[in-house]
Backbone:
């Protein structure tokens, strides 16, 4: 029998209720496990006797194992290869940076050292974006709530994580209930992350965006738009056929009306596909009535995505200039990144070849948080 993760909150809650155990013990158990992920249940002090026998029979402190960690040469990124109980692998990536580096609006940026964890929500992904290595893997399985939270437990032992971005493997809104439950755990004791420091990146699953604003109201939403018109979107993101651009834009307007929050727009720059001046103007017009920050992402070929080329630096700059100057849209360009995390919502793929590549990759990232300034 496969044991459940202690971070599978609803299962744990239900079992505690069935066995007449006070659920107030759950956060205490989580706290102990966070500090001692390899503990035995009997080591946790002061639990009721029924709790020990339940935990021993049905739950593990941690169901996944940290298979390997590779650090970039500049120590900016660390890639965690995590083996699930099923034998499948997922990746999580820690990105470190200092918000005080550089200036914004002529002033020293506030803040200090930060660590952000990029979390996976699925093994593989069914959305099949053509420029994405994870998409080329196909869909294997959803992660459970516990498997999502365990990525944070592993990462906490490497860095002091302040921010979470759901931009690892998978489309988070396709694993909706596990995602919502995992975020709720991350914002409670013992993790206590601010919801304002958690970002969910989606290709634009319209019905789930409409639900998200009620279920997790304070979160940041990032949308992988990647094209300003429906036909280019469909060409590079097959899932866009099911979620037409006009419906997605309606959902974003509604989301912003209710949440009063900026929306982050991610736009991967593909040479000759979506990076022309015409498309910059189309994007500007599409977004000018929303409060957005556009993040232009230079394409970084990974896995089976070689049909695309990276836009020249000049084209990226020109695209940025048009959005800023003609449409007054805050537009940033994502810095050069490691070979493994080059996309809006993931682009991680775990294969033997990729594992080798991970071991040798390095790079710089800009955290989503510095878009919040
Ligand atoms: S870009 Fe995101 S949604 Fe698209 S295939 Fe990759 S992981 Fe899935």
Residues:
């Amino acid at each position: 029998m496969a044991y459940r993760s202690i971070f599978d909150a609803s299962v744990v809650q239900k079992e505690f209720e069935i066995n007449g155990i006070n659920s107030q013990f759950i956060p205490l158990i989580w706290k102990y496990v966070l500090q001692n992920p390899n503990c035995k249940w009997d080591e946790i002090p002061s639990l009721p006797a029924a709790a020990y026998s339940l935990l021993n029979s049905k739950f593990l402190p941690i169901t996944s194992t940290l298979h390997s960690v590779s650090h970039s040469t500049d120590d900016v990124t660390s890639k965690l290869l995590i083996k699930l109980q099923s034998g499948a692998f997922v990746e999580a990536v820690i990105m470190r940076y200092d918000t005080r580096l550089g200036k914004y609006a002529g002033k020293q940026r506030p803040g200090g050292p930060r660590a952000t964890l990029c979390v996976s929500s699925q093994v593989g992904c069914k959305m099949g974006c053509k420029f994405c290595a994870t998409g080329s893997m196909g869909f294997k399985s959803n992660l459970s709530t516990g498997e999502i939270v365990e990525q944070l437990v592993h990462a906490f032992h490497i860095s002091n994580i302040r921010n979470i971005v759901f931009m690892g493997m998978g489309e988070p809104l396709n694993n909706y209930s596990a995602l919502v439950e995992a975020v709720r755990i991350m914002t409670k004791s013992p993790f206590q992350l601010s919801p304002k420091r958690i970002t969910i990146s989606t290709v634009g699953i319209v019905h789930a965006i409409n639900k998200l604003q009620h279920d997790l109201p304070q979160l940041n939403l990032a949308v992988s738009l990647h094209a300003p018109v429906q036909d280019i979107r469909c060409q590079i993101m097959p899932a866009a056929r099911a979620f037409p651009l006009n419906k997605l834009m309606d959902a974003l307007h509604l989301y912003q009306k209710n949440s009063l929050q900026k929306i982050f727009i991610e736009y991967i720059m593909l040479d000759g596909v979506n990076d022309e001046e015409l498309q910059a103007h189309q994007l500007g017009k599409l977004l000018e009535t929303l409060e957005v920050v556009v993040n232009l992402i230079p394409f970084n070929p990974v896995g089976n995505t070689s049909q695309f080329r990276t836009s020249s630096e000049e084209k990226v700059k020109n695209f940025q200039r048009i959005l800023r100057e003609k449409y007054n849209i805050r537009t940033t360009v994502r810095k050069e990144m490691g070979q493994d995390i080059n996309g809006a919502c993931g682009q991680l793929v775990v294969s033997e070849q990729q594992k080798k590549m991970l071991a040798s990759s390095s790079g710089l990232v800009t955290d989503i948080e510095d878009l919040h300034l």
Remarks:
- Confidence is low (pLDDT under 50) at residues 337-347, 351-373.
- Residues 125, 127-129, 132, 134-135, 170-171, 203, 224, 343-347 surround iron/sulfur cluster (CB under 6 Å).
